[in-house]
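README: folding subset

This subset contains proteins for which both the sequence and a predicted C-alpha cell string are available. Records are stored as plain text. Below is the entry for F-box domain-containing protein (400 residues), shown exactly as it appears on disk.
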Amino acid sequence: MGSHDALPDAIMELVFLGLDSLVCLHRAASACKRWRRIIASDTFRSLHSTLPVVAGSYYNEVDFHIRPRFEPSPSATAVDRRHFSLSFLPGRNHYYCNKWLIKDSHRILLLLVRRDWKTSRDDLIICEPLTQRHEVLPPPPLAPSASYWGTTTVLLAGDDVDCGGGSIATGMSNFKVLCLVQDDRLHGSLHAYLFTSGRGSTWRTSSINNLQSTMTFIGIATGRRYWKGGKKEVFALDQSTLEFSSFVLPDDDDDRNSRTVVYNMVALTVGPDDEARIAVGDGIAGNNNNIKIFARVQCGSDGEKWELEKTVQLSAAMLGLPRLEYFYLFYDLPVQAGKLKILVPALAPGTWFFCLDMETMEVERLPKCDKDYMPDYKKPYPFEFPWPSLLRACRTDDKV
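--- output ---
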C-alpha cells in the first residue's frame, strides 16, 4: 500500500473536507507539518465551513458562591473538560475569599469579574483557558457608585487582523472590552468605556449627558447598540468608534406623536439586507395590533434619518391563537435577518414565543424558552474551538 505522502495536496484536501468532526480535523493538523499546512491554508479554509464550532459553554454555577463551570457541547463529548479548567486564574484557590462571575465570552476568550469578599474590590480579568493565559485589566474611571458586578461589560473582537481565509484572529493580543454605566440621578447620563488590547493601551471614554428620561436598551445590530429614550427618541452607540448619536422616529398618519411609545414595545432587529430595523408596536387589543417597522435611510455628518418602511397588522389568526389580547416585542441573540420576535402572555401556563418573517408574514412558533429573562448565573457563555486562528502561523509553504 502506498504512502499518503504520495498523494497530492488537492487529494488530501478532499480527504480532510470529508471529516465531519472538528476534533478529527484538529488531530489531523497535529499529525504532521504537511497536513497542518494543508488544513491551515487559505484554499482549504475557503472550502471548509466558516461557521464556528462550539466546544461547550461556561456557566455561572450557584451554590454558596457563584463559580464558573464548563459543559461540553453534545457534538464535542470527547473533549476533556480539564483542558477548560479556570484553576490557573489568580485567587481561584481562595474559594471563600473571592467571588467570580463570567460576564461574557468571545470565541476562545472569557471575560470574568473577581470580587474580593473582604474589600468588595472588583477586578476585570480576560483569559484564554486552553493556553492558561490571563490578564488583569486596569480599572476604568467608573462612576463612584458603579462596579463591574452590576454594569454591562462585554467582550468584543479586536481590530481587524486577517489571519487568512477572511477570518479575524481573536486572542489575548486582539480583543476589546466595553463597559457601560448608566446614571439616572438628576439629569441622566450614559458612560461608555472601551479597552483595546495592546502595549500601553488604556480606556477610552465617551458619554451622553442631560438625558430627559430613562434609557432602555433595545438591542444590537451592525456593531451599534441602541436605547429608547422618551417618546420616540432613540440613542445609538458605535462600539468601534465609541461615538454616541441620537435621532427621533418619524410620525405617521396613524400616530402624530399623540402618546409616548411604551418601552417594552420597542425592539431592534435586522432586515433581509442585514441592516438595522426598529420595530414599534402597541400590543393592546383595540389598537389595531399594529407593528411599525422603521429603517435607516440616511447617515452622515447631517445626522441620521429613519423612515417607516412598513406596517404589520398582527392578528390571532396569524399566530394560530383563539384570541390575542396582548403581545410584546423582544430582542434576542443571535438576531435572524428579516425576522422579528414576538412574545404573547400565556393563555395557559407558560409563555408563547413566535418568529415573524417581515417579508412573507409567515409566523413560526418557537420552542418554549426563557433564556432572555435568565439572570447572569443561568446564561450560557459559548466557547469555540480555536481552529483555524491558532494555525495561521503555518499557512505558507516556507513555514512547513
